[in-house]
UniProtKB/TrEMBL annotation:
SMART domains hit by this protein: AAA (SM00382)
Biological classification of the source: Bacteria, Pseudomonadati, Pseudomonadota, Betaproteobacteria, Nitrosomonadales
Listed name of the protein: PAS modulated sigma54 specific transcriptional regulator, Fis family
Domain Sigma-54 factor interaction span(s) in chain numbering: 141-367
Entries under InterPro entries matching the protein: AAA+_ATPase (IPR003593), AAA_lid_NorR (IPR058031), Homeodomain-like_sf (IPR009057), HTH_Fis (IPR002197), P-loop_NTPase (IPR027417), PAS-like_dom_sf (IPR035965), PAS_4 (IPR013656), Sigma_54_int (IPR002078)
Stretch forming the signal peptide: none
GO biological process, one term: regulation of DNA-templated transcription
Length: 451
């Protein structure tokens, strides 16, 4: 079979041996010129990404991003531009439009040089992250916004290494899910992922959980117990809320990290630890080091590769997709959607509790829902505290909403913010106290605590 049988090339003449080489790789690869034009694609590429149309002759930015200009001119990092400028390989994580929809794809561009060392083509290799996250639907990370993608790129990069990772972010941003994804994408993926929630652990509990114990090690130790460090052997140990570990325990963790050995409580034999550490916290560990509440040596030990998880309010464009995913996780039997007004309210909420809060809001809505469309009145938002700090009746409007809904939102805001009693509020609203009562009672979407 000739090279052109296997690899489709554009009219640009690419040497047959290069096309053969391209086709021999098991990974999806395309060949690009300096004008961002695809000049060849290998068989693996067609197997994985093919939409039935030849890609040769298309611009990579048009195909993968639906842009009309190169990625670097559209505010993205462009690995082709990076490789052209440096003459070196360049790797990024991009969100691509593929035949399976939008996907996170790791893209690496390598210059192909002639005998004189000048780059003549650029070879792009693509790895879809889809494969790394197949298996358990509940563990799939949803998000295509730039802040989320940047975070995922760091996670993907560090996954392949042994370095300790510190995940920083507000509660509910998905730190445990990202820790799990790092494990799934790492060479340790076939070994266990073990998580320990560190807040509230006493010294004894921490030690027995982490290191296990021998029979008779203390009163009540009727049998021996395998600790997490032993159970995780070869895998990834996730220490959640590592900032909550008291000083007395921090030294034990440090010793384990430094020596790489430990003993079961009551045991004499030193055992070898073999795990990769991923820790997470919502606290400012650097400030804790300054205050003297977190050991500096432990801080440096775990803070090798910090990754900041963006709060949901900084990636509002991910909300519709998260809503869809979370609803399908919560409600497997029927297909539930959100009305436009309900979605727009969520998009304006600032989610102090992040994705977990969104999940709770949807779970509550499903309890109240009789049909299949979640409306404004099904959304019990803490909102009424956050996004609703502003007076909903005074803001600028970008949608036509039923007056009844507006009245409901205004009353919710007024009830929460008015300092006086119900009688005075009714007077100020120009209605009788009884009418106010009736309206509030009718609006089951107003949280009970502010009725
Ligand atoms: N990007 C995401 N895609 C899908 N689900 C997500 C995402 N981020 C978080 N979740 C979901 O939100 C919930 C909270 O996530 P997780 O427990 O990982 O957050 P966390 O940052 O570890 O929270 P905490 O700091 O309170 O422990 C989980 O149900 C998780 O499945």
């Amino acid at each position: 079979m000739t090279a052109t049988d296997n690899t489709q090339a554009s009219s640009t003449t690419v040497p047959a041996d290069l096309l053969n080489l391209l086709d021999s790789f098991p990974d999806p690869k395309i060949l690009l010129d300096r004008q961002y034009r695809i000049i060849a694609a290998n068989a693996a590429y067609r197997r994985e990404f093919d939409s039935g149309q030849p890609v040769e002759g298309l611009f990579c930015y048009a195909l993968s991003h639906h842009y009309d200009k190169p990625c670097d001119q559209a505010g993205e990092t462009c690995p082709l531009r990076g490789a052209m400028e440096s003459g070196e390989p360049n790797r990024v994580l991009h969100v691509h439009h593929t035949s399976s929809g939008r996907e996170h794809v790791e893209v690496e561009v390598v210059p192909v040089k002639d005998d004189a060392g000048a780059a003549i083509y650029y070879m792009e290799t693509m790895h879809s992250l889809r494969r790394a996250r197949e298996g358990n639907g509940d563990r799939i990370l949803v998000g295509y916004s730039r802040p989320f993608n940047r975070m995922l790129e760091l996670a993907k990069r560090v996954a392949a290494r042994e370095s300790s990772v510190l995940l920083l972010g507000e509660s509910g941003t998905g730190k445990e899910l990202v820790a799990q994804a790092i494990h799934d994408m790492s060479p340790r993926a076939s070994a266990p992922f073990v998580a320990l929630e560190c807040s509230g652990l006493t010294e004894t509990l921490f030690e027995s959980e982490m290191f296990g114990y021998e029979k008779g090690a203390f009163t009540g130790a009727v049998g021996s117990k395998v600790g997490l460090v032993e159970a995780v052997r070869g895998g990834t140990l996730f220490l959640d809320e590592v900032g909550d570990i008291p000083m007395s325990l921090q030294v034990k963790l440090l010793r384990l990290m430094e020596a790489g050995t430990y003993r079961r409580i009551g045991g004499v034999e030193p055992l070898r630890a073999d795990f990769r550490l991923v820790a997470a916290t919502h606290r400012d560990l650097a400030a804790m080091v300054q205050d003297g509440t977190f050991r500096q040596d432990l801080y440096f030990r775990i803070n090798v590769f910090p990754i900041q998880l963006p709060p949901l309010r900084e990636r509002a464009e991910d909300i519709p997709m998260l809503v869809e995913t979370l609803l399908s996780r919560l409600e497997t039997g029927r297909r539930v959607t959100l009305s436009d007004e309900a979605m727009s309210l969520l998009m304006r909420h600032d989610f102090p509790g992040n994705v977990r809060e969104l999940r709770n809001i949807l779970e509550r809505a499903l309890i109240m829902l009789d049909g299949n469309v979640i409306q404004l009145q099904h959304l019990y938002l803490d909102t009424m505290k956050s996004a609703k700090q502003e007076n909903p009746a005074a803001g600028s409007f970008d949608e036509i909403a039923p007056l009844e809904n507006l009245e409901m939102r205004y009353l919710a805001w007024a009830t929460e913010h008015f300092q006086g009693d119900r009688k005075t509020l009714a007077e100020r609203l120009g209605i009788s106290e009884r009418t106010l009562y009736r309206k509030l009672r009718n609006f089951d979407s107003i949280p009970p605590e502010i009725k």
